[in-house]
Design goal:
Bound molecules: adenosine-5'-triphosphate
Largest sheet: 8 strands, mixed
Strand content: 5-15%
CATH architecture of the largest domain: 2-Layer Sandwich
Helix content: 40-55%
CATH topology of the largest domain: Beta Polymerase, domain 2
Number of helices: 22
CATH class of the largest domain: Alpha Beta
Strand order of the largest sheet: 1-8-7-2-3-6-5-4
Number of strands: 10
Radius of gyration: 28 Å
């Protein structure tokens, strides 16, 4: 029988007050509408483990789309429903999002059979999931709020630090779970259960990835690369001989592992210093993974994993241009030359460049940290006042001032100094015949 425990205080502690109150309100509405509602999946897992997670997924025993509409109306949230899957997303005024899905109520053994009513729809729904640690749920109906429900021993597996599948066919049914198992095992530092590991190895031997839609593999690969330490996951992929499975012919050697480690450090630095810059960090890892591989091979990886078109193009462009950029940087002696080479380049490209070529890392990092932000204190207005007619020369002169600031030949803060330098340049332009 499932074991229960109440985690409502724990939820109160980890969630913003408004979100917690929202859940209480949703619980009230569930009571009134006569449906059972549960938080499920990753949120509950991370609640118990103690990892931050604000992604709330709710499963409703009943029609989630109908329920979501009522909740949206009463609590003032926008509701997006997907009737085909009987799911809905609620977006509240403060930006909080909550996903809702319907537990499948009727399951027929064969056409025309009676629905099995003896098993709770929630339990059936959870049984379709990947690992026991992801099958925990918390009831949010008002009177039962916070009741933890553990049908499949997820709580014990969290305590034992084990990743376990729910049944022997799990990996065969969906081989992407292999990738998920390794990802979660690295993230939480959990081991695979003994039986689970055996099943995983057997599934790998069957070469089941060939049967999986490319974009599902792509999705899981991306998830791996967005983890805190993708290298660790890749070392496990290597251990279970999955690199060759996913990327036939790819070289996965010391050099690439070192680059992965360097990418990781650069990303940590980047996250701290440029949190506001939207950056596709997984692209940096992909660049590192595919660097030096023949272009045709890379293209075949991209197509077999159905990479999004834009992303694939961007990656190919990076790989095509990066060595040339490195050569240019290597022969750049002045900061302003580095600046000219790197300005306008994508964040991901810069990070990849620094990771692949340690001997120019300092130049790239200085560019990212400092040089790219240099702006002269003088402007076109000053040039005009000095008697030059507006034209393309303006931009050129201001750029030259900028380069001199970057190279430290003109002070960055001293406007007077910049102005007199500007004057010298303008006077040179304003010839007597002008
Ligand atoms: P993360 O912290 O990485 O977001 P998550 O568990 O929330 O982890 P999702 O990939 O968003 O991960 O999945 C949500 C839920 O859906 C999971 O808890 C899991 O139980 C279930 N799930 C996802 N993919 C599968 C799959 N391939 N097979 C079975 N269940 C899956």
């Amino acid at each position: 029988p499932p074991r229960f425990r109440n985690v409502s205080e724990l939820i109160r502690k980890v969630l913003p007050k408004e979100t917690f109150n929202l859940l209480r309100e949703i619980g009230k509405i569930a009571d009134r509408e006569g449906v059972n509602a549960y938080i499920v999946g990753g949120f509950v897992r991370d609640l118990i483990i103690g990892r931050e997670n604000f992604d709330i997924d709710i499963v409703v025993e009943g029609d989630a789309t109908e329920f979501a509409k009522v909740v949206g109306r009463e609590l003032g949230a926008k509701v997006h429903t997907f009737s085909r899957f009987k799911t809905a997303t609620l977006v509240f005024k403060d930006g909080t999002r909550i996903d809702m899905a319907s537990a499948r109520t009727e399951v027929y053994k064969f056409p025309g059979a009676l629905p099995e009513v003896d098993i709770a729809p929630l339990k059936k729904d959870l049984f379709r999931r990947d690992f026991t640690i992801n099958t925990l749920s918390v009831k949010i109906n008002y009177s039962d709020f916070g009741k933890l429900i553990d049908f499949f021993g997820g709580l014990k597996d969290i305590k034992d630090k084990k990743i376990r599948v729910l049944h022997s066919l799990s990996f065969v049914e969906d081989p992407t779970r292999i990738l998920r198992a390794l990802r979660f095992s690295v993230r939480y530092r959990f081991e695979l259960g003994k039986h689970t590991e055996k099943l995983l190895k057997m599934a790998v031997e069957k070469k089941l990835f060939k049967t999986v839609e490319g974009q599902r593999i792509y999705h899981e690969l991306k998830q791996i690369l967005l983890e805190d330490n993708p290298l660790r996951v890749f070392l496990r992929l290597e251990k279970y001989r999955l690199i060759e499975e996913l990327f036939p012919g790819l070289r996965w050697n010391r050099e690439k592992k070192d680059t992965f480690e360097r990418v990781r450090k650069l990303i940590i630095w980047h996250r701290i210093n440029f949190p506001e810059r939207k950056t596709d960090y997984h692209l940096v890892y992909l660049g590192a993974l595919f660097f030096k591989e023949p272009l045709e091979r890379v293209k075949s990886y991209l197509s077999s994993l159905s990479f999004p078109e834009k992303e694939g193009k961007k990656l190919l462009k990076f790989l095509d241009e990066i060595y040339g950029t490195y050569r240019a940087l290597k022969s750049s002696n002045l900061p302003s030359e580095v600046y000219k080479t790197l300005r306008g380049r994508e964040e991901e490209f810069l990070l990849l460049l620094a990771a692949l070529f340690p001997d120019v890392e300092e130049k790239v990092v200085n560019f990212m940290r400092d040089w790219r932000f240099v702006e002269p204190l003088v402007s076109g207005k000053d040039i005009k006042e000095l008697g030059l007619k507006p034209g393309p020369a303006f931009k050129e002169i201001l750029n030259r001032i900028k380069y001199e600031i970057i190279d430290g030949r003109v002070s960055r803060e001293d406007r007077e100094e910049q102005y007199s330098r500007l004057k010298e340049m303008v006077v040179g332009k304003v010839s007597p015949s002008n």
